[in-house]
Amino acid sequence: MQIAILTMFNGLSKTYSLVSVVEEHLHMLLGGGMRVKVLVSQDCPDSERYGIYNDKRIEWVKITNRLQGKQIHWMDYTQPTGRVHPSFFEEAEAVADSLYDALQDVDVVFLHDILYQGWHLVHNVAVRQVQVRLPRLRFLAMNHSHPAARPRRMDWPLSARYMPLPNATYLYPAESGLAALADQYMVPLERCRAIPNSLNLYGEISEEVKRLGELTDLLEPDILAVYPGRLTTGKQMEKAAALLGAIGAVSGKRVKMIFCDFPSLDIEPAAYKQRIRSEGEIYGLGVDALVFTSELGWPDGFPHRGVMDLFTLSNLFICTSYSESFGLIVLEAASRGNMLVLNQAVPALEELGNRLKAYFMRWNARGFGCDTRETYHPSEEAYLREHAELIVRMMDDNPVIQAKTITRQRYNPQWIWEHRLRPLIENQL
To answer: What UniProt keywords apply to this chain's record, in alphabetical order (predicted)?
Structure first.
């Protein structure tokens, strides 16, 4: 399918927020296998392209901004009545001819603020001329600002900002604005759809986490836990895997544990990994829900910056360690908005956890002058399931955790594409 994005950008500075919105749409469209044209003003400098805008799969088309060799100066026609400047219709016809040449092989055209903004009135009218010449074209007309109140009196062509466009579906970032959008263009509410802006959490994140995200899903889990540490029995990683398995079992939520591990001389890595996996599986942690970064390209440890970025994505930190002198990793996890579950039997973790309002559980530990071993009644399974239910309830009731999780899951470009944008495009045919 051939998609055209009509923006009429004069430049690609990110100070213009629409540049970032289109950037995310390009990620979605190209990732979904669409053929894409980007239509911009002929005055948009090639040198300003960056990131996805430099992708070789994009076909760039410069739409004329000249009439008889002179630059067309866009006038901001926001008023609904009055007259346009004398050369307006000649300019619109010139732009329409240029658009017609660019859109003959296109199936669906994205219009970004073209129908809404007063300074795009000349392009608005040009698009309507092209629609008559190419009646098979389908349009997705996006308003990025608050819909305009429909005036009682209007003069053509100023009225084009309020007129329906044939074969168009009207888009707005929030469902709360759809009724106002329908009123602006006097179309049925059924022709209006909400396409939220997306937040690409991978956009400002380390390359290591981007690579990891290509190998395992970091965005969809309801509960994502990260445990960095040396692969030693002293970290009791199998206990963390068991708890997360219990959390998934009692809640039905999708869970995932990322062990950012590196080898230890204490135990053969393969043997300890198998022990961790087996313990997790006993309590319901699936094979795909447990990841060792050492098996995905980082045998000697995951970079610290990458760990901090993973904490930005995760929402739960479980520290089952047998012994800690302070627990800096706890502060790092807390600083990125994770719920903390700590081993209360370790004095340093209890001290730090009390200050950070952590949730406490008890596992075997080394204290000052003595070691402790835990006995669970009636069973360890019952103990884990009881605490798992409480942890899930606390996470569900925590507005910060919920906001962080929903942002990661439901406002990432992949989710917006799969659940909102792709169905909309496919329904246009």
So the answer is: Transferase
Indicate whether 391 and 420 sit together in one domain: no
Residue 276 in tokens: 């961790």
Query: Which single residue is written with the structure tokens 């884990």?
Result: 384
Q: What is the DSSP letter of 153?
A: -
- pLDDT score of 3: 97
User: What total of structural domains would you count in the chain?
Assistant: 2
Asked whether residue 341 falls in the same domain as residue 395, the answer is yes
DSSP secondary structure, 204-225, as one string: TS-HHHHHHHHHS--SS-SEEE
Q: What is the C-alpha to C-alpha distance for residues 161 and 75, in angstroms, rounded to an integer?
A: 14
The residue written with tokens 């007309």 in the block is 141
Is the separation of the CB atoms in 153 and 80 below 8 Å? yes
Which one-letter DSSP state was computed for residue 74? P
Residue 258, classified by CB atoms within 10 Å of its CB into exposed (0-12), middle (13-18) or buried (19+), is buried
Same domain, 225 and 133: no
Residues 165 and 306 in one domain: no
User: How far is the C-alpha of 414 from the C-alpha of 26, rounded, in Å?
Assistant: 12
User: Are 178 and 235 members of one domain?
Assistant: no
Q: DSSP letters along 273-305, please?
A: HHHHHHHHHHTT--GGGEEEGGGTT-TT---HH
Close Cβ partners of 37 (under 8 Å, ≥ 6 residues apart): 2, 3, 4, 5, 58, 59, 60, 61, 102, 106
8-state DSSP, 156: T
Q: What is the mean pLDDT of each run of 10 residues along the chain (429 residues)?
A: 96 92 95 96 96 96 97 96 97 98 97 96 98 97 94 96 97 97 97 95 93 97 97 96 98 98 93 97 96 97 98 98 94 98 96 97 89 94 98 98 98 95 83
Q: Are residues 44 and 61 in the same domain?
A: yes
402 and 258 in one domain? yes
At a CB cut-off of 8 Å and minimum separation 6, what does 88 contact?
75, 122, 125, 157
Tell me, letter by letter, the H, E, C secondary structure of 361-411. Answer: ECCCEECCCCEECCCCCCCHHHHHHHHHHHHHHHHHHCHHHHHHHHHHHHC
- Same domain for 244 and 377, yes or no, is yes
Write out the residue range of the structural domain in which residue 362 sits.
207-410
Contact 19, 12 (CB under 8 A): yes
Residue 428's pLDDT is 63
DSSP tag of 69: T
pLDDT of the residue at 64: 98
CATH number at residue 406: 3.40.50.2000
